[in-house]
């Protein structure tokens, strides 16, 4: 019954009859339950990984293999305590990784639920929006421009649809659909509005059959941040590998036990590898996504959070993002002795409340609480012709009382003027329309005639204005403080765009979309300039040079105005790509843009090493949203735009986007802190171990101590996703030179402090076992301190933002555990509380020293950076 093939040859009436549905009322409640049971939900079931598979895969891979081999070698030489601790390390990593993955999966499920596609469905005689997954065969639904068709359907009522089904059928040209035609699930409606009946859902659709037949390759997407962190992981593994090889060669040279050398080397390698890296990434992204959801920004592609941190150019739509998307009616321009009340009265008669048209709603609001409402209640709309792109106007036949009637029309001023026959009024109206347009207003013309007249009387012009949102100017100022260049990209006319840009303080000239063309009329403007100066100078020899220049500039400006809406032909000289990029960078935005212009703007900015965020809401915005580093579908966006976007906003306005960018920069800060901490710790431990073994023939800590240190370090670092982080005042990207320099300095300082303590203990003639326990305690305490040094960046550790409790509690807890292990001698000789106090004091002194050292290195790097910039500027000036 629900197979689309069953309905392909049937007419609309036959389909309705076969599905046992009344098109005027839709399905009844009692029908829906049985069909839901029979056909299930309207969704393609996702193949979920089993719980056992998710657990077992964590014991498989390079890092688990090394831990497992180290455990086997410990068992082989009878080191059962070491074997037990190594197995605990393996299990802890498995549990942490599994738990964080479960959190990420849960968060993504919640976000997907918020992004669930809706369908406008007729049930029990009432239209309502329901989740598309609840549709069943026989449901009557309404399809509109921008919708993604939620199921296979047969069209049963309406004029026509233009459907883009290229993703399903490969057709490059949108298909025109009429009553009786079928339309497939996941096609995009480009034009039109029709009513349809659902014939296939879920796997029983054309798309569903395709999914069953084709195994789709999973798309792996890696952002700049993920690539950087993976590179850091590889760098650490390389360092560990070199050090371990050195230890093995020295051990073999000294004729140490091969089994012991291999076991220790494996343990040291495991401790140096960023085992927590995947878990830190996943939990940080998931937590960030949930925080953005609290700001009503739903993330559909997690890596977009990372990209937002580096966004330096934000291309945003005007309507609904910078403005309220609620048209406001200004004072009308009146003609032929009609009054303001007449203009509003006839405009209301040529409109319909149920259409919810953005230009008609202000008209009804204006008449709602006035005596005009009484006049309207005395009228009856006998016939109504809606607006269409060809006629560009509405028309209604109105009955006044018993015997009188009028025909009223409302629409584009030029379309209404064409129905009138008054040349004097025509000229006045055209001038007024131009004046309104210059001031940034949209206008509707109103006309009226009696049935026995052949032409209309022009009543007046209604000017409309979409005012800026109350928070837009302040939000743009905030964006500037964050180092963002906000550009307005709009399809509205140039005058409106420039007026809004001026009100909001958007810097840079707003240009027409034609200036993006590689062909330019510069040569023509230059010729006009020269010819005008020459002719005017010859015709008026007594004119001053300033007067001649002013006339020439006026001619050039008027010619440029005329050429704005004309795309130059191939006879003009082509612009260089860099010139167009520079134009886009310097401008405040573009008006009257087409979808291909938006795509071109994003593409060219990306080629010039910008990270670009783009907002959009329509079907035609989808390519630009997909192309952008961070595509943002604004509130009220079509299904197609939401599907193409990385982030979907549930509230209107620009402030939501700024909140998302601030959150992403905090996430970046946390990841950078983790990178510096992890590199510094690896260098600190492995360099100290390697040098102590190769130079002094002394193992500073045992294999089991290394395992415990790795455990105590990995557990608190998981909480870095919940830490407080500073919002940087500029876009942030990975500066590996800076990260590696800071981490290396901190790591080498740690090595120096460890060797200084080693020499002190040697001088005091402590036993080797006790020295190892003391060095273990020092490495544990100092390692936890490095977290607080790394997290504050260029600032000192006592400056805001302070660590969050979610970071402090696990960090302090693991430090206490490490202290108790050393103090009471678990798996080692006991250190005692007195020595523990000395070690804490020693580590604190070095902690403060490391913090000042870090700040000094940051300042040195910044000074070097500014010197390089200044030299570059001097070279450009020369």
From TrEMBL:
One of its GO terms (biological process) is proton export across plasma membrane. Its main location: membrane. Keywords: ATP-binding, Magnesium, Membrane, Metal-binding, Nucleotide-binding, Phosphoprotein, Translocase, Transmembrane, Transmembrane helix. Residues 6-79 form the Cation-transporting P-type ATPase N-terminal domain. GO terms for molecular function: ATP binding; ATP hydrolysis activity; metal ion binding; P-type proton-exporting transporter activity. PROSITE patterns: ATPASE_E1_E2 (PS00154). Pfam families: Cation_ATPase_N (PF00690), E1-E2_ATPase (PF00122), Hydrolase (PF00702). It comes from the Bacteria. The chain crosses the membrane at residues 232-252, 264-287, 685-712, 739-761, 807-827, 839-861. It is found in: Membrane. The keyword Translocase applies. InterPro entries: ATPase_P-typ_cation-transptr_N, ATPase_P-typ_cyto_dom_N, ATPase_P-typ_P_site, ATPase_P-typ_TM_dom_sf, ATPase_P-typ_transduc_dom_A_sf, ATPase_P-type_domA, HAD-like_sf, HAD_sf. It is a multi-pass membrane protein. SUPFAM superfamilies: Calcium ATPase, transduction domain A, Calcium ATPase, transmembrane domain M, HAD-like, Metal cation-transporting ATPase, ATP-binding domain N. The keyword Cytoplasm does not apply. GO terms for cellular component: membrane. Belongs to the cation transport ATPase (P-type) (TC 3.A.3) family. Type IIIA subfamily. PANTHER family: CALCIUM-TRANSPORTING ATPASE. This is Calcium-transporting ATPase 1.
